[in-house]
Amino acid sequence: MSKIIAINAGSSSLKFTLYAMPEKDVLANGIIERIGLNDSVFTIKHGEGEKFQVTEDIANHEIAVQKLLDQLLALNIISSYDEITGVGHRVVAGGEIFKDSALVDDLVLEQIEELGELAPLHNPANATGIRAFKKLLPEITSVAVFDTSFHTTMPKVNYLYSIPMEYYEKYAARKYGAHGTSHKYVAERAAEMLGRPIEELKIVTCHIGNGGSITAVQGGKSIDTSMGFTPLAGITMGTRSGDIDASLIAYLMGKLGITDINEFVEILNKKSGLLGLSGVSSDMRDVETAAENGNEDAQIALDIFHNRIIKYIGQYVAIMNGVDAIVFTAGVGENSAPTRKIIIDGISWFGCEIDEEKNNVRGVERIISTDDSKVKVLLIPTDEELMIARDVVRFSEKH
Ligand SMILES: Nc1ncnc2c1ncn2[C@@H]1O[C@H](COP(=O)(O)OP(=O)(O)O)[C@@H](O)[C@H]1O
Ligand SMILES: CC(=O)OP(=O)(O)O
Ligand SMILES: [Mg+2]
After folding, report:
1. Side-chain-facing half-sphere of 345: CA atoms under 13 Å
2. 285 lines ligand 1 (CB under 6 A)
3. In Gene Ontology terms, what is a biological process of this protein (predicted)?
4. Is 286 a catalytic residue?
5. Candidates 121, 182, 230, 284: which one to mutate for ligand 2, based on the most atoms within 8 Å of Cβ?
6. Which ligand is nearest to the CA of 11?
7. What is the 268 CA–ligand 2 centroid distance (Å)?
């Protein structure tokens, strides 16, 4: 039986899902966390709720891939490496080059590495994951699936910044967005769930995880999204600031005696957002708990978090001149009922109303607005891995 594997390599983690083909049944999925740190945690879920977990030091992504393949063998999930005929990798930045997924060859891999400036937290790790697989399974179909591809339909009016035009022309300085694979998946599911052709729908998709972005999907196409040149822009995130006034950077660098701009960008990427505001954690669960226990900084962090999402939804309703559906997905969007309720309550003027009972769930696909709600609100668990697997199949057939 042939199998394909979808890989989402983060800077410190490697998530995977293994599928049996052609049915695309999930055989196993899991994550290796804390790569490069002590006590990496390696978890595989498989079979009927079986779970393998071990804590050991895993120094880098190549070792992580080796351990993953060996453990799939040891658990009898595969009987030899050869069973894996294709691999798909999530890559965050594809720039203006990749309007679609691509078969990975040396040139493509080089381009992914060169695009590292557009996703400094993600592309280098994605490339490392690709190299690790190439080394261990050189012959299989290898496909890169880009977060930015879905957003390549954005019109100039939304992707250009109001800076000298030659910076776009010479240096491709523009908005690229991210999480496109997820926005596309949930927008298509929303149309199916509503039983309407996507071509006639205006949808705002809210991918709210550790990183988060909001997208305006009109007629099935992304027309605007909250992330920018890199995944730093847009809404408040776990550790990322989202949008700020660029002049503040110059001002604060002076105050803090920081001379290297990269050092400041790192603060905006890794020490800001929920973490920076609350001083508690980047993890929504911790911030919600701290706020419940009376921590005022945690409460204002949550208030800002909700406020920025509401503002982006408002912008997108405005530029589409209407909205049929609002979709919540990713870690926070799928699991935090309070987040969804506060946001929808904040935009009730648009004609949407949450059904508290329907909203009181985690991670299930359903409509969570009242029957009377003019604008439908949907909870849709994302499945970036399934989208990646589909592209591996599409490219294997072409190959
Ligand atoms: N039950 C929950 N309630 C609130 N937030 C949750 C819950 N479960 C997970 N989350 C949040 O989801 C976020 C992680 O989302 P995820 O989509 O996995 O992130 P990423 O893919 O960017 O690493 C974290 O902030 C986490 O706290
Ligand atoms: C692009 C991005 O922010 O991805 P993630 O949410 O997985 O960090
Ligand atoms: Mg994610």
Report:
1. 10
2. yes
3. acetate metabolic process
4. no
5. 121
6. 2
7. 15
Atom of ligand 2 nearest to the CA of 212: 6
The number of the ligand 2 atom at minimal distance from the alpha carbon of 178 is 1
pLDDT one digit per residue (tens) for the chain, 399 residues: 789 999 998 878 899 999 998 888 999 999 999 898 888 999 999 999 999 999 999 999 999 999 999 999 999 999 999 899 999 999 999 999 999 999 999 999 999 999 999 999 899 999 999 999 999 999 999 999 999 999 999 999 999 999 999 999 999 999 999 999 999 999 999 999 999 999 999 999 999 999 999 999 999 999 999 999 999 999 999 999 999 999 999 999 999 999 999 999 999 999 999 999 999 999 999 999 999 999 999 999 999 999 999 999 999 999 999 999 999 999 999 999 999 999 999 999 999 999 999 999 999 999 999 999 999 999 999 999 999 999 999 998 876
Contacts of 124 (CB under 8 A, 6+ apart): 11, 113, 116
Domains 3-146 and 197-379 are alike in CATH topology: yes
Residues 92, 95, 101, CA angle at the centre, nearest 5°?
A: 65
SS3 377: strand
CATH 3.30.420.40 assigned to 197-379: yes
As a whole number of angstroms, the distance between CA 379 and CA 310 comes to 17
Distances (CA, A) of 5 to 29, 58, 71, 80: 9, 20, 14, 14
| Residue showing tokens 């400094």 | 120
Nearest Cα residue to 60 out of 41, 35, 43: 35
Residue whose CB lies within 8 A of the most ligand 1 atoms, among 208, 332, 341, 342, for a mutation test: 332
**CB contact at 8 A, 68 and 129:** no
Q: What is the ipTM of this complex?
A: 0.98
Residues composing the chain = 399
Distance between CA atoms of residues 352 and 325, nearest Å? 9
- 332 ligand 2 Cβ < 6 A: no
3-146 has CATH 3.30.420.40 classification: yes
Ligand nearest to the backbone CA of 180: 2
Instruction: Please say whether the beta carbons of 189 and 118 come within 8 A.
Output: no
Instruction: Give residue limits of the domains in the chain.
Output: 3-146, 197-379
Catalytic residue among 82, 100, 105, 147: 147
